[in-house]
Amino acid sequence: MESNTTFYATPSRGAVENWAAQTPPDFRFVVKLPQLITHERRLTNADTELRNFLHAIEPLGPRNHAVWIQLPASFAPTDLGTLAAFLHQAPRDHSYAVEVRHRAFFDEPQAATNLERVLARVNAEWIPFDTGTLFAHRPTSFAERDAWMKKPRVTRRTRALTAHPIVRYIGRDSVAETVDGWAYLVALAVQWLTEGRSPTIFLHTPDNNEALNLARHFHTSVAAAFPALAPLPDPTPSEPPTLF
């Protein structure tokens, strides 16, 4: 589960204890570092804030699959030294995954290679954000226009660096277009599973109204080609969500 709320502020430890209490032991979170660390401090002079954040999410234990470092689009290849220093000093009892949005990392092979080297030193993953389906043609709704303004337009990336690749995918308002656009991602997930990797795929649409149904659809498509994939639990009636 992508925990986007942590991007806006470090949660209280009590709130995180509640998340842990509401989820089974095999539930997987990927929690974002607060934007204070990634965007305002740009990974510098944030030792206290990082310690406070890691202390707050400690109750998740192994449920915390990775710490997600989402960097601003202005974080360029010339800033890789800062990222390398941050990752080198970050506690090793956590795994890390980095999302970059500067187009040079996707358009310039040397920039991509340099980033991969930085990540490989600490066994960190690169989280690509696949917006190809979103930008395939002009928006037709307010939600799509809003996504066009906010989401990065970068080249698709399909290379995994670790045993736990993570991909973000955003489609369109149209379920059919969203599903058609992720055909390659189903094949990629099957390939990674066959290689013994454990991928995490985040599926978005501009309004996210169909996110849960789409996740089940994606899982069914992957399972059809990889029968060893564990089944999803049956949905059960529940009270309104209280996790976040």
TrEMBL record:
Residue ranges of the TM segments: none
Stored InterPro entries: DUF72, UPF0759_sf
Source organism, top-level taxon: Bacteria
Protein name in the entry: DUF72 domain-containing protein
Organism: Kribbella hippodromi
